[in-house]
Amino acid sequence: MAPPLSDMTLLDLWLSRSIPMCLLLQSLVLMALCFPSASMCPKGCICQRDSHLHGFNVTCSQSRLKEIPPSLPVDTVLLRLDHNQIGSLNLSYNAVETLGEGAFTGIEATLQVLDLSHNRITSVHKDAFARLKARIIVNDNPWHCDCALQQAIGGMAHNHEAAARVLCRSSELHDQEGQPFLAVDIDLCNLAKRTTDYAMLVTMFGWFAMVISYVVYYVRQNQEDARRHLEYLKSLPSKPKKADETDDISTVV
C-alpha cells in the first residue's frame, strides 16, 4: 500500500513518477536557496534567509553558548548572541561597519574580551559600550570622530588603552584627521549644536535680506509707476475755454 501523499518526499514522488524530473530539480534548488542545511546552521541556532540583506539572519539567543558557534553560514549578515555565557568575542579582521545601541545586549555580564580590531567600523551608537566591563580592542578601524563616538569613548573609562588607540580617519574637525581621538579637546556635541545654530542664523539672515530686498524693490517700482503716471498727466493737452465762459468773465469785470 502506497503511503499517503502528505507523507511522501520529493524523491518518493519522483520515483513514483508523480512529478517530472525537471520539477524535482527546481524544487531542490529552491529549497537550497531558501533554507540552510543542518550542517550550515549551528546547533541551537535558527537561520533564516534575509532577502533584503542578501544573506542569513542567525539567531542564537538563550542557547547557553560560551563562544561564537562554529560553522556559521558564510553569508551571515545578522548574528544574535544575546543572553548567553560568552566570555570572549573575537570579530577581528572582518567587515563590521557600525555598532548599534543593543549590539552586546545580554552578554555584558559575562563578556571579558571584545576584539573588534581590523574591521571597517566608522561609527558607533553613543551607548554601544555603555554597560560593557570587558577589555575592548578597537584599533585599526576607519573611525569617523564625531559626537556619538566621543560619548561612546566617554563610557569606556576602564578601557583607556583602547580609547587611546582610536585614530580619526575623518572628523568633524578637519585638523584632527589622522590624529588620536583622545587628542580632541573640544566638545564635538556642542560643536555640532553651534554649527546647527550658525546654519539657522545664516538661513534666517538670508530670508530677512530677501524680504528687505523685495520691500525696497516694491517701493521703488511704485515710485517709478507714480512718476510715469504724473508725466503722462502733464503731457495731456489742456482743455480750451468755451466762448460763453469768456463772456461771463468779461461781464463780471
Structural class: alpha/beta
CATH superfamily of the largest domain: Ribonuclease Inhibitor
Percent of residues in helices comes to: 25-40%
Number of helices: 6
The spatial strand order of the largest sheet comes to 1-2-3
Broad CATH class of the largest domain: Alpha Beta
Instruction: Give me the Rg, rounded.
Output: 39 Å
The CATH architecture designation of the largest domain is Alpha-Beta Horseshoe
One letter per element, helices H and strands E, the order comes to: HHEEEEEEEEEHHEHH
The overall number of domains is 2
Write down the CATH topology of the largest domain. Answer: Leucine-rich repeat, LRR (right-handed beta-alpha superhelix)
Overall 3D shape: elongated
Q: DSSP strand (E) fraction?
A: 5-15%
Beginning-to-end CA distance, first to last residue: 144 Å
How many E strands? Answer: 10
User: Mean of the pLDDT scores?
Assistant: 77
Low-pLDDT segments: none
Largest sheet: 3 strands, mixed
Keywords: Leucine-rich repeat, Membrane, Repeat, Signal, Transmembrane, Transmembrane helix
Subcellular location: Membrane
Protein name: Leucine-rich repeat-containing protein 3
Pfam family, one: LRR_8
Description:
- The chain is α/β, with parallel strands linked by helices and 253 residues long.
- It has helices spanning 10-15, 21-34, 147-154, 160-164, 188-235, 243-252; strands at residues 46-50, 55-59, 76-80, 88-90, 98-99, 113-115, 123-124, 135-137, 143-145, 168-171.
- The strands form 4 sheets. Strands 1-2-3 form a 3-stranded mixed β-sheet, with no helix packed on it. A 3-stranded parallel β-sheet has the order 4-6-8, with no helix packed on it.
- The longest helix is centred in the C-terminal third of the chain and has 48 residues, at 188-235.
